[in-house]
């Protein structure tokens, strides 16, 4: 009997050890398994008081905008134009890379923007590995922050509706009018079509831009032909849009966008040499015939496609939002309508960002 009890104790100890080993293994796998939330790091805080989670009930307008170190002054001009032209409560989600966090925070806290409500979010470029290939034609279009718009549901936000804006935008209207627009049932976003205003057509013709899917996708590729999208269908610009986050998640939009990024990585169905770079085509594919149309005055664009072609002053005065998409940015030189951008510019307190103007060109 004594021997039997000893054997039972040994077996019991072995059983406990096996359970411990299995539990340890399970916990270890869970700790190293990549999570969706691991792609993002919340490194920001509200400018006033302790940071708090915001929701729809807080009655704020959430605006997502990116802030790269080399274009920080552009982001701050956009924020200033929004903040100065509304009495609504706006909350800015400023997405940046690790090397620009301190600069962004200093830019806000040491200028007139210190009273805005905001949160800094760090984007992890590793999420793009295997989805974006190098392209030397316009390397600026391959900046990791260009793809933040694909990952809106992964941001540390709690809103069902958000506005996304590029950093080369100036808002002249009241942002709450854009936020309050109605999206059609089943639509996850609203964009401005490239076939909207006659004044826009005149600008586009003068600089030879494409306004259709033919200008963005390579219709020689079978993968593009199989989409069944008419090459003459009007394209849209994803630099300004209103998004229904709940619908975005329901339709698994991010997964679809990543699928087409991967397709291009493997089969080169579009490139940054084409009109809109590599961040636009996946959006065009995924949202084809599945988006609401913005009021065209809420996205007057192409101001950055030529240093010569100009809109009429009277037309621009009535525009609610101006977009310098294209290579000729208003903080550089040459550029057009720089007075409409520069009135919102706030000098960088750290002096890392400065305007390029004829007097400082050598």
Automatic annotation (TrEMBL):
Keywords assigned: Glycosyltransferase, Transferase
Organism: Scomber scombrus
Signal peptide range in chain numbering: none
UniProt-recorded Gene Ontology molecular function terms: UDP-glycosyltransferase activity
Family: Belongs to the glycosyltransferase 8 family.
Listed name of the protein: Glycosyltransferase 8 domain-containing protein 2 isoform X2
GO terms for cellular component: Golgi apparatus
Superkingdom of the source species: Eukaryota
Keyword Nuclease among record annotations: no
A family per Pfam: Glyco_transf_8
Keyword Transit peptide attributed: no
